[in-house]
Each structure stands twice: as structure tokens, then as C-alpha cells.
TrEMBL record:
It is found in: Membrane. It comes from Saccharomycopsis crataegensis. This is Uncharacterized protein. InterPro entries: ASTER. One of its GO terms (cellular component) is endoplasmic reticulum membrane. Keywords: Membrane, Transmembrane, Transmembrane helix. The chain crosses the membrane at residues 44-60, 72-92. GO terms for biological process: protein insertion into ER membrane. GO terms for molecular function: protein folding chaperone. Pfam families: ASTER.
Length: 123
């Protein structure tokens, strides 16, 4: 009873089955962050979206893409455009006319609010 008996009919050979390719969250981030960085013109968000898109582009062979998803190259191009948009003020500076217009609008709003407060309080 001390010896173990191995039954050959119960031995099953191991066959490796690789896991299915997943669609990670980087695909969603690679599509949405470049557009958000373009709209906000935020430099930190632009660099983060560029890094995420580069990572997504490098790993796109391991990712199962849906039919309606953009290609990783398109996301990388959008991230590059987001970087250019964030730094466009260096290439094309904004004129000082906008600053003068903002001061004029602020003065007008201040006078309107002061008049409304005077009318409401009766002073």
C-alpha cells in the first residue's frame, strides 16, 4: 500500500489555451482624451493623451478592436493635433485687443450689477 499507482487512462495531456484578446480602457482613453485636450487646450492633458495614444498604438496587435473603433494611428494623429493646439499660442500669439475688450466687458458688467444692487436696496 506504500507505492502510488498511476493509471495511464486517467492522465490528460495539458494543452495551453491562450486568453482571448481584450479591449482595454486605453482604447477609450485614446479616443476621448485627444479631443478633450483640443477643446480645453490643456498642456498636461495633451501630453497625457499623447502618451496614452503611443501606448495604445504600440499594443494594438494585442487588442481586439470593434468594427466602429478608430484605428490606433488615427488616435495618435489626433493626440499630435491636440499637442499642437495646446502650444498654438507660441506660434500664433493672441492680439492684445481681446484683453482690452475683456476689460470693457468687465467694466460694463460691474456698472450693471452696481445699478441693480442700488435699485434693489433702494440706496
Amino acid at each position: 500500500m506504500g507505492a502510488s499507482v498511476i493509471r495511464e487512462d486517467l492522465v490528460v495531456k495539458y494543452t495551453h489555451v491562450p486568453p482571448e484578446a481584450r479591449n482595454p480602457a486605453t482604447g477609450m482613453m485614446a479616443q476621448t482624451m485627444p479631443m478633450a485636450s483640443m477643446f480645453m487646450r490643456n498642456k498636461m492633458m495633451s501630453w497625457a493623451s499623447f502618451c496614452i495614444c503611443v501606448q495604445h498604438y504600440m499594443n494594438f496587435r494585442n487588442v481586439k478592436l470593434s468594427e466602429d473603433a478608430n484605428s490606433p494611428l488615427m488616435s495618435l494623429i489626433l493626440a499630435t493635433i491636440g499637442l499642437v493646439t495646446a502650444y498654438i499660442d507660441i506660434l500664433v500669439p493672441t492680439p492684445q485687443i481681446k484683453k482690452k475688450a475683456a476689460e470693457t466687458v468687465a467694466d460694463a458688467v460691474t456698472s450693471v450689477v452696481a445699478t441693480a444692487v442700488e435699485t434693489a436696496t433702494g440706496i
